Amino acid sequence: MNDILQKLETTIHQRRSADPKDSYVASLRAKGRAKMAEKLGEEAVEAVIAAVQGDKADMTGEAADVLFHLMVLLADMELSIDDVLAELARREGLSGIIEKASRKD
Ligand SMILES: N=c1c2ncn([C@@H]3O[C@H](COP(=O)(O)OP(=O)(O)OP(=O)(O)O)[C@@H](O)[C@H]3O)c2ncn1[C@@H]1O[C@H](COP(=O)(O)O)[C@@H](O)[C@H]1O
């Protein structure tokens, strides 16, 4: 896994049990999973707007917000970014198999 994502995942796990007054991650945990999901949705919409506007700087920031809030939600569900990467790797493997099969047709 990318080092930055690994470090962020560790930080998120550590900060979940901090005082919500001192930590954004802890404040999200205190508000509950539905709030985390709502924040992910909000950030995704902002990324969509940046993409439609073709604003690369905004898109970079919004994509970072999406990844961060996704990782907060994954941590709350006791999932890791590695679980997501494993699923992507599995699909890549599947697409290789489908591609090979279609070449035989
Ligand atoms: N990557 C981030 C990160 N990205 C965005 N944000 C916060 O996400 C929030 C989003 O802003 P909004 O205006 O949408 O939200 P809001 O108005 O504060 O909240 P709502 O009223 O919408 O619930 C801001 O408060 C940002 O500071 C982040 N907060 C923390 N991190 C990382 O998480 C680590 C731990 O942070 P703490 O838990 O604060 O110690 C930090 O070291 C960073 O690496």
From TrEMBL:
SUPFAM superfamilies: all-alpha NTP pyrophosphatases (SSF101386). GO terms for molecular function: phosphoribosyl-ATP diphosphatase activity. Its EC number is 3.6.1.31. Pathway: Amino-acid biosynthesis; L-histidine biosynthesis; L-histidine from 5-phospho-alpha-D-ribose 1-diphosphate: step 2/9. Gene3D superfamilies: MazG-like. Pfam families: PRA-PH (PF01503). Keywords: Amino-acid biosynthesis, ATP-binding, Cytoplasm, Histidine biosynthesis, Hydrolase, Nucleotide-binding. It comes from the Bacteria. It catalyses: 1-(5-phospho-beta-D-ribosyl)-ATP + H2O = 1-(5-phospho-beta-D-ribosyl)-5'-AMP + diphosphate + H(+). HAMAP family: HisE. Belongs to the PRA-PH family. This is Phosphoribosyl-ATP pyrophosphatase. It comes from Parasphingorhabdus cellanae.
